Amino acid sequence: MAKQVKLKAEPRATVGRSAVRKLRARGLIPAVIYGGNDKPQPLQVSARDINAMMSQASGENVLVELEIGGDGQSRTALVQEVQHSPVGGDIRHVDFHAISMDQMIEAEVPLEPVGTAVGVKTYGGLLEQSLRALAIECLPGDLPDRITVDVSQLNIGDAIHVREIQLPHGVTPKVQVDLTAFSVVAPIVEEEPVAAEAEAAAAGPEVITEKKEEGEAAAAAAPAAKEKAPKEKEKK
Question: Which terminus of the chain has fewer CB atoms gathered within 10 Å of its CB, N or C?
Fold first, then answer.
């Protein structure tokens, strides 16, 4: 299940590019929490704390208990989006989505294959993963980090569909259960070019012979034409 972590945050009174630059210069990261019945609230969190939290996260879905200073409130949220700097990859902004522990949420959880398919190991097939993540619905406390699927029994031509995936307790899929998640296909064998080369080689001499025969016929006809021309002149 997704690990719930605590993170201290402070309300952010100023917004805008200039304020954000000053904030980052102090080692703070701008953030915002939205969702629920409250209006979106600008926040600021320690860059050190948010980096430590994200580096220890075992999955894409991070469940956070935000301890917001100033008003003494605590709000449970999911990390919705993390914006990184294009140079260096530093965290630049974080979006939190407020949730309630007793209300169902929807999320996408990574799918990970476990084991080596017999069709790959024994017959050289290829494992294809059609779904990289699975859309699910559950209570926040039941949210898994990832969903593992045992693919070791798959032979060539076999597949695992969503309905065949063993989901954790309290988790239900939010996609069509007939969708294929994993499958093993036969290896692609390239056709040998030997036959085509042999046909081309056989066709080559025929073309050359035909041209040669045409040349020989033309050469034979030339003397006859020369002999015929004087005789016709003599009749005149």
Answer: C
